[in-house]
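can u do me a favor
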């Protein structure tokens, strides 16, 4: 039995002369959490809107829940859930009124609606607040309520477009607990995000840059992927001056600030461990630590996005 919930082959989307998505191919399996990671304007939201049947592809083949998105967009929309990056519920209605409205829009059977509303209220942690106006609720509650509305009709595929933007870390962690609970029940979940810690929660990640799919794999696979050199952790003060020196130092491929240190990519460790402290000292900068380290997911992201064509 084919376990692919989504199949994308050579997807292209153009707006006039601008190519927003350029020959992207991937698939997603039942019960998988697939993350889309990329800078603003990379094409993440455009891809998600095509998969949701909200935009028509220029070319390529896209199948969602076994249906051709270009031919049957309305049928696709009936089989998916979608939550946008902006809170899209009605602030002047109560949680129950919002849920009842979305239940009607999604065609939830009347005989099942009250039970599903009760489930969504409990899932969102809104028991006892059912009659408060949504506009008075904190961001984490609104977020979980929006998720409840998106899955009230029990879709097998769920699209979340930057759903935790502007939400506190505890609420984001709780939200991800709900995502994994749904995935464990067989729901395929697409999540676009800017947060590296959230990217680690995904089963696989698609790195998108300027309309291209530049990498696809599990977080571990991406961290182990070749980066064209060896990564060093360099601690030196003042940090800004050290960065400027290393960016001009022969043999340094990349250098960037990470917290209170620098991550520096070099062709090989031996020469760099010997020469870099001297290059810094020649400019009056004292290096307190320099070590070889494994790449983080953020290192991989910065490298892949910076070198994509």
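np, heres the sequence
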């Amino acid at each position: 039995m084919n376990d692919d919930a989504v199949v994308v082959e050579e997807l292209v989307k153009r707006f006039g002369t601008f190519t927003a998505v350029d020959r992207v191919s991937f698939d997603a399996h039942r019960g998988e959490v697939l993350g889309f990671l990329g800078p603003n304007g990379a094409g993440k939201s455009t891809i998600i809107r095509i998969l949701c049947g909200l935009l028509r592809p220029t070319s390529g083949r896209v199948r969602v829940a076994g249906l051709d998105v270009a031919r049957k967009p309305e049928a696709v929309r009936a089989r998916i859930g979608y939550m946008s990056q902006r809170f899209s519920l009605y602030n002047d209605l109560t949680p129950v009124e919002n849920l009842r409205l979305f239940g009607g829009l999604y065609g939830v059977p009347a005989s099942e609606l009250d039970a599903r509303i009760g489930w969504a209220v409990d899932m969102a942690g809104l028991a006892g607040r059912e009659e408060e106006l949504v506009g008075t609720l904190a961001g984490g509650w609104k977020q979980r309520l929006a998720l409840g509305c998106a899955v009230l009709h029990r879709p097998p595929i769920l699209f979340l477009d930057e759903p935790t933007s502007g939400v506190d870390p505890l609420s984001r962690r709780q939200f991800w607990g709900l995502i994994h609970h749904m995935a464990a029940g067989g729901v395929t979940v697409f999540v676009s995000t800017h947060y590296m810690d959230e990217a680690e929660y995904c089963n696989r990640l698609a790195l998108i840059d300027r309309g291209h799919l530049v990498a696809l794999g599990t977080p571990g696979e991406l961290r182990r992927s070749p980066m064209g050199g060896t990564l060093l952790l360099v601690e030196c003060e003042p940090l800004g001056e050290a960065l400027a020196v290393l960016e001009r130092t022969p043999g340094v491929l990349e250098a960037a600030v990470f917290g209170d240190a620098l991550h520096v990519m070099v062709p090989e460790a031996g020469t760099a461990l010997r020469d870099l402290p001297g290059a810094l000292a020649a400019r009056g900068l004292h290096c307190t630590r320099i070590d070889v380290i494994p790449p983080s997911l953020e290192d991989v992201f910065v490298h892949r996005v910076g070198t994509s064509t």
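The chain has a mean pLDDT of 91. hope that helps!!
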